[in-house]
Amino acid sequence: MSKNIANTALNQDVQQLGYDRSQLKSKIVHLGFGAFHRGHQALITHEMLAQEKSDWGIFEINLFGGEALITSLRAQDHQYSVSEMGASNTQVKVITSIVGSLHPELDGKEAVLSKMSEAQVAIVSLTITEKGYCVDLGSSTLDVENALIKADLKTPHAPSSAIGYIVEALRRRKEKNIKAFTVMSCDNVQENGALTKIAVLSFARLLDKNLGQWIEDNVSFPCTMVDRIVPAVTEQTLTQIESDLGVYDPCGIACEPFRQWIIEDNFVNGRPNWNLAGATFVENVIPFEEMKLRMLNGSHSFLAYLGYLGGYKHICDAMQNEAYEKATLALMLNEQAPTLNVPDGVDLEAYAHLLIARFKNPSLKHQTWQIAMDGSQKLPPRMIHSLCVHLKNKSAHKALILGIAAWMRYVSCVDENKISIDVKDPLLETFVGIYKERGLDKSVVKDLLAISSIFPRELLRDEAFVNDLTNAFQLLLTEGAKSAVASLEG
Fold this sequence. Notes:
By secondary structure, the protein is of the alpha/beta class. It is built from 22 helices and 14 strands. It has two domains: 15-282, NAD(P)-binding Rossmann-like Domain (Rossmann fold, 3-Layer(aba) Sandwich); 286-487, N-(1-d-carboxylethyl)-l-norvaline Dehydrogenase, domain 2 (Orthogonal Bundle).
């Protein structure tokens, strides 16, 4: 037997919380066993289980890719490690809240559907990225032209999309008179519960109006706000984890010590007491969600595009440049915070300074390229919604302008040294077509602004805004990202 986390003596300072795993049931089915889930929901569930006698186990399912990860997880008895890397110290934890796993490529679609249909499953949670919901984020409607949705509508009993699996599992529960489960999105998408509800109900109604009505009457879709910086796993990450843990763990992840989970308390079939491990249940998640999306995620995107263009591989590298640090803090306090309506007692200035410290953490190698992915879907909630507030109020917004211009420059697919950028975005073909016609020229600004799924149409009609954005784009072309960021102090 090869050494792994389940059968090897680990380093003495590794945290292992004792509770009876044999009592756990697969009450939560989670779709998307990615790094963020491992460092957030699964870890918080694990720490909750150590606080009280409970049977809320998690059953992991990857629908697309990650077959090797699931195989590795099984080989080590569904245990894995999390390294919480602070600026000066690291805490390694072994997570044991997972009770099983499936993958349609390894086990077949029917096995996945059967598991989701089991009576004890009370929650189906999701970390499937924005794309996984198959929704047009601009119109907040199900994208019926999405290839997965079109295929699933033809063969609903053998689905491929997460939405298709959820609806088919609920259909089976309805037929067998089994109580419905709660569908809980944990993705970094604005009003993620509402968006999930739109996708699920729209898909179900296209198949069967009665099924759609039953889901609306019996299923809840709580919104959540999730926050923890979890960089993509690299071989360097795994090597460091092996050193800290005492054995190689192919499922291990590294993350920052900070974490936050705000959850709308709306569950139809029971829920764990995640609040015992630091989560907060509230009636309305939206104010917290907007705070995080604009201040943290908006600043992250700002740093990702201007950082990458400036030659910085990681967020912490960019933050070593004093101009980038000052610009990011100014963006948060002067341009993002004024657009928010947060509950009494929330200190946005303290939150901004906490975010700066998190971004500067040298132990976390969060790639600017990773954060820059899927910008067409991320820009609206992170920057454009704030921008529209400033345009309406006629208030200052020059950092937001530069951040959006940097995204436009980034999707040209070539950096300041004329080296290709591997842009990952569902609208990549559109960007390539625009740049092929216009070249690396400021005339692309209007063409990019005309993409209605990203930008409200009124922006293109605002001549002053278009002029400011075009000037910022030209500044990036002629002076480069570092000079453009430095100019924000003027």
